[in-house]
Amino acid sequence: LKSILKDPELLATQAYIGGQWVDGDNGTFPVTNPARGDVLTEVADLSRAQVAGAIAQAEAAQKEWAKLTGKERAGILRRWFDLMMENAEDLGKILTAEQGKPLAEAIGEVGYGASFIEFFGEQAKRVYGETIPGHQRDKRIMVLKQPIGVAASITPWNFPNAMITRKAAPALAAGCAFVARPSEETPLSALALAVLAERAGIPAGVFNVVPSVNASEIGKEFCENPGVRKLTFTGSTQVGRILLRQAADQVMKCSMELGGNAPFIVFDDADLDAAIEGAMMCKFRNNGQTCVCANRIYVQAGVYDAFAAKLKAATEALSVGDGLADGVTTGPLINDKAVAKVQDHIADATAKGGQILTGGQPHDLGSTFFQPTIVTGVTQDMKVAQEETFGPLAPLFKFEDEDDVIAMANDTIFGLASYFYAKDLSRVYKVAEALEYGIVGVNTGIISTELGPFGGVKQSGLGREGSHHGMEDYLEMKYVCLSV
Ligand code: ADP
To answer: The whole model's pTM is what?
Structure first.
């Protein structure tokens, strides 16, 4: 991997704590390339005590960092953003090597990840408080917004860069210090971010990266260490529940970006070609491994056959392969377990009457590759209707009635992203308001941007990331009552 980088120093394998590069007390763990199965490199495996040390360093550094003006923090964050953009190709190669997504998509993620640093850096200047008319003649009410303290993150492997920046950027902009525990599958992108943070002049201890294979131990340290004042997590609802329970003992503030089960609804009046384009991006981007991927595609009876035929043609045009190879649109899945889940959902659907329209089989490129698949005749009793597949499986449900499809779309414990295609204006309003989701894409399959508030309702999470609302999760409000 080093040989294909313009700047080989971006491939860091030690942890970054308090401005120092350190080895792990537990030795190292391997990071593999999901496309080929080969070990890319070994990365420092930190002990729980080392993570406690990182929290202490962050606590000390945070006090000075918070004293800077918003404009000073903005300047430093801007340098970090610029460095990410200048090194986007190398960061993309590292990301593809450890995660699998096609290089163009990986470079796209780096730009997306960097956009949070740009945006929140600018927002650092706009952390406005409030004055409220007093309740008595001699009273003045002021509301200050102050950084919460040290924020700790646990993030997944599907967006190894952007899942960290969209937490770290508002944290640092607000004046918090940050301790990131990246996924054990994809620590290299996080460590490359630390290399650039150091070069950008982010003070020692303000941004720390603590790789470890032992996620649950580190999760406990984050929840039990009184130095951590905020836990921010992206991952499964199952792990989110564990962390929320653990965080309860310290009454810690938590942001949770958890699982989804996104409905993608195509009404009779939709622009079908636009719906196909949206569905392809929404379903097959990152090989179906995003928490906002279409998981259930509901198509109204009048356009069902036409939609299925077009989707089949578009799916069969995908080019599966190693993400570093030219022209590849669809990489491997992250590991064999992910492939097994796709197979399980297909087997369950076909056992209950679903039919494979295309794909359905492991890909001959290797054990982590799977054919992009469409299953038709899917119903609410199948696993795909209840659980996130997180893979290249597009299940098509046929529906007749608007109210029925809204009820089916909402029939889930999840509430992250939803999508629908329609032209009728009153339908657009009605459906957008009726979907019980934190995000609704109307006539678009891509909703992610640093400018919008991303987050879920129901068991998809707590809090919002991105937009000016994303800053609030890292700020505390202080009410000052002044008698004059
Ligand atoms: P995914 O299916 O996306 O991997 P997970 O919720 O399993 O979702 O993992 C998300 C992140 O949470 C990963 O970095 C993983 O290592 C970490 N993780 C898994 N189990 C725990 C746990 N018990 N406590 C803290 N972190 C965990």
So the answer is: 0.97
